[in-house]
């Protein structure tokens, strides 16, 4: 088969670099030491750890359960769990007196008990573990000799029981002596306190334990109650006087509650005359009544009667005002008199209050001493009458027995741990040694059938590449292939004009919002809250809030027919499918070519391209048209002119078809 011609001139095989001698077999020889190293480390570690595990002396343990209860108080019928008492008994069980008693008892036993069990050795052997929420304690004895543990634990129980009985007897005697002395002292103090209280009562004229039973406080309480009643009466009369004066100032009639007999007769006569005059005026004319003397007499009598009533009411008003003022003055004078009396009596009442407070303190001290005296007397009687046997003694729940198996160490568990640790240590040492002695080795040469690998010097390759580039003709600018992409269609300005002219008012305003930088979702929920006609601004809220300029033509369309909202009311918004249908109808009515490619995305795409072709910075696009994916922004970069980008304030943000306001008349519906 003929060989394929190559455009490069390659060197011969003698110029190919060779591998270092012996590098082909270095990897295999480097791995051979690993199993041997692993086995040696594993065996050495396992032998040492197993020797440590199995050469340890075993420890045995025995335990006994004891219920220890604190002596209850005299007024208690039973004892409950007492954590403090259990903790105190734990210290007593491990205290030196009990340990010395254990040693004495062990020395009196047979020869099976060794003589090395001193008090210090026993402290290390013995431990006390309380059972939670109970008065039960567990006495434990631990040591290497199982035969002596049960003897030590049982001797410990006997020593503690003897100590407890002796403590109960001594405690009863000491408690009785202390209570008797306390009882006598309390009696002397109570007698002295009673004499002091009687002298104080006679000196300050205190008749009773209650302050209201004494003259000074009774007088003060009576004046205080009278002051409260007088103050209430003063407030009521003052309110009545103010209401009466206000009614008189407004010109309202002020009639007494109980009308006088004369006033009531005048009002009844006036009511009868009114009825007669009313009937007269219904039957005759005013001119006829004025000419007839008998008929004219009735209105004159009515007028005279009303004048008499008003005079009576004025007299009643003056009388009521005078009575109310007198009542208010009397109530105010009473309040002032009572306050003066209270001020005169205040010093005497204050002095009595201070003395009565001292009296109450003395009474409280005496009552406290008497209560303590009775309690001490009751305890003393019960302690003297109660026999010692009724006190709760030590109760042995279970005595200790000779253990048959050690509790420490667990040889088989520790052997498993030693085996696992030795395996891990061997793996770690092998990996660490391999890591510290590792060297960089070149890759072995690959032998591929019918393929030869050559290396080309860098200078020769660059020279050949430059020669190859010269042989390839350059393509013209218009002949270079371009990368195409599928995306929205760009509409021309003429097509935009046709589309706006053919659309109905609602769809036209929707298209104008798309040409102002709003997305389809933002345009579908655009309402009066998003419009600032005075500032010519479109206020866009949502995920990407921004302020956009209001095009003159869009402003005119929004103001036509009071259309302050684009596509929705304050309660609802247009469905996106409905919006797409409206735009499709406008496209069909405009007669634009390829109507299937024109939709809301095409209109928005046209506006973005209008901004990009002006040279706007791609980073500022988001401030005008909202959030765009990074890939979409990069795709628009090919339409941007050369040179540095311009800020959004330096380009025209209003689409040309929406600029002139006078042309909006031609689009009106």
In short:
With 669 residues, the chain is mostly helical. The protein is built from 20 helices and seven strands.
Residue share in helix? 55-70%
Number of helices: 20
How far apart are the first and last residues' alpha carbons, in Å?
82 Å
How many β-strands, per DSSP? Answer: 7
Write down the overall mean pLDDT.
Answer: 75
Provide the β-strand percentage band.
Answer: 5-15%
Report on the biggest sheet.
Answer: 4 strands, antiparallel
| Strand order in the largest sheet | 2-3-1-4
Question: pLDDT under 50 segments (min length 5)?
Answer: 1-30, 441-461, 467-485, 563-572, 662-669
Mass-distribution shape? flat
Rg of Cα set: 59 Å
Following the backbone from N to C, one meets helices and strands in this order, namely HHEHHHEEHHHHHEHHHHHEEEHHHHH
Structural class: mainly alpha
How would you portray this structure in words?
- This protein is mostly helical.
- Among the domains are: 213-389; 493-667, hpI Integrase, Chain A (Orthogonal Bundle).
- Helix content is 58%, strand content 5%.
- The protein is built from 20 helices and seven strands.
- It has a four-stranded antiparallel β-sheet with strand order 2-3-1-4. A three-stranded antiparallel β-sheet has the order 5-6-7, with no helix packed on it.
- Helix 6 crosses helix 10.
- It is flat.
- The two termini are 82 Å apart.
